[in-house]
User: Fold these one by one.
Assistant:
Number 1:
Amino acid sequence: MDFSLELSSGELVEIWGPNGSGKSTLLRCIAGLFEPDSGHATIERDSLFTYLGHKQGLSGVLTPIENLRWFAGLESIQNEQTSLRSALETVGMETYSHRLCGELSAGQLRRVALARLAVSKAKVWILDEPLTSLDQEGVSMLSTLIEQHLRNEGAVICATHQSLAVSNTRIVNLP
Amino acid sequence: MTYSSIRIQVERDILIAIRGRSETFNSLVFFMVVILLFGLGIGPVGSRLSAVGPAALWVVALFANMLSVEGIFRRDFDDGSLELFLIHNNPLFFGVLLRVSVHWFVTALPLVIVAPLAVVMFNLETDVLVIFIATLLLGTPVLTLIGAIGSALTTGLGKGGMLLALLVLPFYIPVLVFGSSACYAAIDGESVRAQLLWLSVLLVASVTVGPFAIAAALRISQEY
């Protein structure tokens, strides 16, 4: 399949398409997790990006705070415990900060995974079906997070089956 | 990688090892139980025990290592942490080397610590104990690195246990040969220099090449 896409700062690109159309594969190619048969994906100027895939990226035997701390370490972000707590507060998970992730529900795990976006300093967010398992409050919380990020000159590319209702959104349909 | 991110990575891996203790300490329990069974099976005849001892100790250490190494990336693959690890570690060499080092520290080092007990059970002398520990210290990191390559290759396949054994066992053989032969040489009062040097060569080679191979295998695992 021939595909070309350019993403500018302050822009959200929603990738739409039926199951199996290659949305996740496309995002994994951009994140460097999957080698395309031909072509290339580059993130210019600022190479820092963060990826949220189908899997949450949270160890079940660690607490949300410990998971976030590890993530901050991966991105070489100097994070105080308080800033990790405020990231959890953003997604409404501060009361669960010391529970093991293995004890949380799918929706709660998704929220903790989304807290990574609040911790990250990356300009580009690559989100693969981020609304999965989220309730209505979680969906509006994510929309707010994305809007803030776009206002800060960030860019978001997101595979989804449901619109995030964010301004400055471009929709790309995969056949 | 900054000092702070190295410290956080090490702390995380140790914490996971402690909290997932059944997976971590399986190899140690396996090592002790099989050594005990060997001792009971051979019987209380000193000469028989010391004749079989070095080979038995090394074979059990080898399988104990293989048992632990299977899960080195499995948990992270299942929960998606491995994706983040691959994306954010650039170059991957140091990140992988760190992961494997911590894994060796929590799974193979305990074997070295209980080695005196195992050696006593096989009626071996103190000088053999010293050589056995030296060969374990040189050989088990090689086993862990080779095993980690196999584990990284089979992580995306789900149950890759048998395949892992088939992949890595041939590469374990030189370590087994030099490790047990050094112990037999110590029993016979011969020089163990050659065996220890060969084990050192294997260690240097596997530390140099292993992390690259593991990193490549982990990237392949993401394409399943």
Note: Chain A has a mean pLDDT of 88.
Number 2:
Amino acid sequence: MFIQKGKSFSFILVFVFILLVLIAFPFFVDLFYQTFLTELFVWILFAISFDLIFGYTGLLSFGQALFFGLGSYTVTISILKMGLNTELALLLSIIIPMIFAWFVGYFSVKLTGIHFVIITIIFAIIGNIIGETWTAFTGGSDGLTFSPPPFRLGLFKINLMDIKGNYYFVLALVALSYLFLRRMVQSPLGKVFISIRENEDRARLIGYNVQRYKLIAFIIAGGLSGLAGGLYSLTLKYAAASYLHWSVSGHAVVYTIVGGMGTLIGPAIGAGIVMFLEHYLINYLQATDLVVGIVLVFMVLVAPKGLVGLIQSRFKKGEVSA
Amino acid sequence: MKLHSNIHDDISLKQFVIPGLTRNPAFSWIPAGVYPVLDTGQESRVLDATNVAVYKRIRFVISNLAIAILNGIVWGLIMALIALGLNMIFGLLHIINMAHGALYMLGAVVAWYLIEVTGSFWIALIIAPLCVGAIGLIIERGLIRTIEDKPITTIICTFGVMLAVQQLVLMIFGGSPRRISPPVAYRFPLFELQYPAMRIMIALISIVLMIGLWIFLRKTKYGLWMRAVVQDREMAVGLGIPVNKVYMWTFVLGSALAAFSGVLAAPIVSVEFMMGRDILIMAFIIVIVGGMGNLGGSVLAAIMISLIQGIGSLFVPPSIATVFALAFMILVLMFRPQGLFGE
């Protein structure tokens, strides 16, 4: 769609437009929707970071919940128990999950296919069990609540206890992360990721150290998942061991598949659609995941490239016939 | 997350504290009560037969150990049924069925309803797997057939099925756990304690089912076809084996096995919509440790892992035992991805 190389001017136009709309939003909607959108931005970040390893590098990891949970715990514990300021806590919520991602990735990227899926799940389970058992440190399944101090950057100051301030803060970081990821997948590094997804053996034959590049993708995705977790905790002022459960990664899988993998914009759109769907369905149906599951199966069967893929193929057909 | 079953919950050595016994200084670094077998006090007193307290304690430890071993075998056999279904589906269709845990849960839930209506556990044991098998048939024909050659896609697709089935059960069955009273209430004495005969019955039924499966695979036409397809799919097609049908019945059989274990587990664990979510991972681990496509390996691995968990949780908290078991799985995955018992 709008993110193709050589169309960067139109991309900037659309991006700025969407950003302006989102900046204007809090003046028109009530506090509930402001919080809801903030959460949506966080899940978008989680989904696009997952898209980097799944959509671009071809690694289906169900262990991203580990990094999400780690990020959220890093922010919570460093503010609540260590009294750090928000800036440092947020920075740590990227670095610490990256270190863990390095460790997990070191083992995981040596495996492929189903074994990779399982080993990532196992790591997430270990994290979840430790989180639930070590209640003195993590609060277990009850979780920890905290109130973050304002975010300061030079003269810049954002009060995170204010819902609107939090909204802009999360929006800014998610937008920056999106631009970072978009730049990355268009860079030579991103091309290597794609070549690994398309044909791992061929990438190796060309001379790329496939495992090393997989590890790089895994670490970056881990760091951004951690940031998503950290922002989630800053939004809800809460962290719990359930964030570490492997099924949390399922969110990212659903959003990515529904929106379209390997497109970055797709998972973002997917997150928006699925979350709004859930939000409206909850009035009629207690079990919204039922619909999510059906949508997921439907998309896998009918449009494996997701909504963006569907639109793209429609566009291409139009061009041919014109 | 609870990867260990609460089958082990009824035993704990920590309850048994003897007043007046001094702690053995050699084990002083271990927190009190964590390592009760070693922490029996002074060695001289252990050997002193007149010291009734120590003698009783040793009896108690032995009976707890016996129960842990029995529980481990019973739960291992139940897990073996789930893992067998998962492994058969993997070995033949080359797909990872994320919905397998949901089918296990479905078996238990359907059994709960059947017991409510008919009042008989035995009717439920026969009907519930048939129902779940039918659902498996729908899943295989409707979904998996269309995407069979894409492993990652099937994982995601069956993950969606898992979500949908779980939430459907949540809607209909409700979120609160429910219990099935065991059809055999008799408890037989085991050293100092008592053990429910029902669990032995469950183990026997599992063994009968596994023998039945073995006979099915070895002695029947379909079994022969299944083994042929596992060995060489193209050749099997060439020889006129209806591979498509073999796929279908394998999936149905695997689903029914999951349901069987669901029904058998129902009197031990409580029935709820999430009960299959973590069991699924345990079943995956068993399949990997036993070797993918190696059915005998799955049974061995299931019993082995369950025994280690059961006996281990006598000495350390069950969650810690599980973490160690999982770390061990990672090593198996890294160094023996073909499984412990494969060539």
Note: Chain A has 14 helices and four strands.
